[in-house]
Design goal:
Helices cover 17% and strands 32% of the residues. It is built from 7 helices and 16 strands. The strands form 5 sheets. Strands 1, 2, 6, 7, 8, 9, 10 and 16 form an 8-stranded antiparallel sheet that branches. A two-stranded parallel sheet has the order 3-11. Strands 4-5 form a two-stranded antiparallel ribbon. A hairpin with a 6-residue loop joins strand 4 and strand 5. The termini are close together. The structure holds zinc ion (3 copies). One zinc ion (ZN) binds next to loops.
C-alpha cells in the first residue's frame, strides 16, 4: 500500500481565485464569485486525471509517489492547477500522530472512520469513488478528505452561518435580507442596490484553505 498526501487548488476561470479542492468533488462552487466548477469537465474533460498528474498525462500521481522517498514532497503549479503531493501516511489532524499502516491495511472493518491511536479523534474514510478510479484504478481509499458527488458544494456550505446576517439599507435604513447568493442586494423597501462590504462578504463566504487529505493506493 502506498499513501499520498494531497493539497490541491484550481484557479477559478471566472475570477482567478484559487479554489481549494479538499477531497473528491464532482462540482464545487467558487467561494469568491460563486461560479460552479464542474470538475470532471475541466481541462477539456480530463478533469480529475489532470488535477493529479503534474502536467504530464503519461504519469499518474501514483507512479510519481512510487518514485518518491517517504516524506518527500513534490510541488507543482501548472497553469490553473496547484498541487502539492507528499508521500506519507496520514497524520491525525488533532495531534499529528501518524495513522499506522496496519490500521489502514484493513480499513473495511473500520466503517467510515479511522481513529487516531493516540488521541482517539477520527478521520473520515471513503472508498475511492469512480470519479477518481476511472483515471487512477489503483486508488482505494480517501482519508481525511470529502467525497462529494452531489450537485454543488463549497467548503463554506459545510460551515453554514450560525446566526443570520443583518444589515440596514444605506439609503432608507430598512433591513436587508442577505442570503449570500448575491453581493449587490436590492432593498425591499426603497429598491436601492446595496453593495455588501468586504468584511461582511467574507464572513458570509469564509475562504477555505487547501487542507491535507490522502489517497491510499493498493
Ligand atoms: Zn471565482
Ligand atoms: Zn490524534
Ligand atoms: Zn432601502
Amino acid at each position: 500500500m502506498l499513501c499520498v498526501e494531497i493539497r490541491l487548488a484550481f484557479k477559478c476561470p471566472g475570477c482567478d481565485h484559487a479554489v481549494p479542492i479538499n477531497g473528491i468533488y464532482r462540482k464545487i462552487k467558487c467561494p469568491d464569485c460563486q461560479e460552479i466548477l464542474d470538475i470532471p469537465k475541466l481541462r477539456d474533460g480530463r478533469g480529475w486525471q489532470e488535477l493529479l498528474n503534474f502536467g504530464n498525462p503519461a504519469v499518474s500521481v501514483f507512479q510519481h509517489a512510487q518514485r518518491m522517498r517517504l516524506g518527500e514532497t513534490e510541488r507543482g503549479a501548472f497553469a490553473p492547477i496547484k498541487l502539492d503531493s507528499t508521500r506519507k501516511w496520514p497524520s491525525c489532524t488533532e495531534c499529528g500522530e501518524t495513522i499506522s499502516e496496519e490500521l489502514l491495511a484493513n480499513p473495511v472493518q473500520l466503517g467510515d472512520m479511522v481513529t487516531c491511536a493516540k488521541c482517539g479523534s477520527g478521520m473520515s474514510l471513503h472508498p475511492a469513488p469512480s470519479l477518481l478510479t476511472d483515471s487512477y484504478p489503483c486508488a482505494r481509499w480517501i482519508v481525511g478528505g470529502a467525497v462529494e458527488l452531489g450537485e454543488v458544494t463549497t467548503e463554506a456550505e459545510f460551515q453554514k452561518l450560525s446566526h443570520p446576517v443583518v444589515m440596514k439599507c444605506l439609503n432608507c435604513g430598512g433591513t436587508l435580507t442577505i442570503d449570500g447568493t448575491q453581493r449587490l442586494v436590492p432593498c425591499a423597501y426603497c429598491n436601492s442596490p446595496n453593495y455588501l462590504p468586504d468584511d461582511l462578504w467574507s464572513a458570509i463566504h469564509p475562504q477555505p484553505k487547501r487542507e491535507r487529505w490522502y489517497i491510499l493506493f493498493a
